[in-house]
Design a protein that fits this description.
This protein is 30% helix and 27% strand. By secondary structure, it is an alpha+beta fold. It has one domain: Aminopeptidase, CATH 3.40.630. A five-stranded mixed sheet has the order 1-2-3-4-5, sandwiched between helices. Strand 2 and strand 3 form a beta hairpin. Helix 1 packs across helix 2. The termini are far apart.
Length: 149
């Protein structure tokens, strides 16, 4: 069992991290319908993108958490917003404060880059995640509607 007081290193994910990040993304509750090949291609694309970002949290040589995001302008605020597409902590490392540390690191990095707010969506069934996000200061402000075209 991982110890609570282990040093967590944060940083930008690199192409060499994609296989481990793919495995980590598949720890999400609602990814059973996703193929690892497609998830890998998406993560690879976002790691290489100028418009998106992938931050990793690492203990030793193990990537234990990830935050995948995009930064965009908003019609509702005078400034840029960082949209979190996914945030995952490896299941065996959960409930050890790593998620809070990722949010803390991400918030500081975004603030330092001029971003004025953070947004995310979370599936209805992910009630534990909702409690976590609310404890981290996020507010429920809308529903996300989606339609494939």
């Amino acid at each position: 069992m991982p110890r609570r007081n282990m040093e967590i290193l944060f940083g930008q994910a690199r192409p060499v991290d994609v296989p481990e990040l793919t495995s980590l993304m598949l720890h999400l509750d609602d990814t059973s319908h996703q193929s690892s090949t497609l998830v890998s291609k998406r993560i690879e694309r976002m790691v290489a993108s100028k418009d998106d970002g992938v931050f990793k949290a690492q203990i030793g040589t193990v990537i234990v958490g990830v935050c995948v995001f995009s930064i965009h302008h908003s019609t509702w605020y005078d400034g840029k917003i960082a949209y979190i597409h996914a945030m995952v902590v490896k299941s065996e490392y959960r409930s050890r404060g790593i998620g809070s540390r990722i949010i803390e690191y991400f918030t500081k990095a975004m603030k330092d880059s001029g971003v004025i707010g953070l947004e995310l969506d979370s599936g209805f069934a992910r009630e534990r995640a909702h409690k976590f996000y609310e404890a981290e200061g996020f507010k429920k402000v809308s529903f996300l509607f989606s339609r494939r075209i």
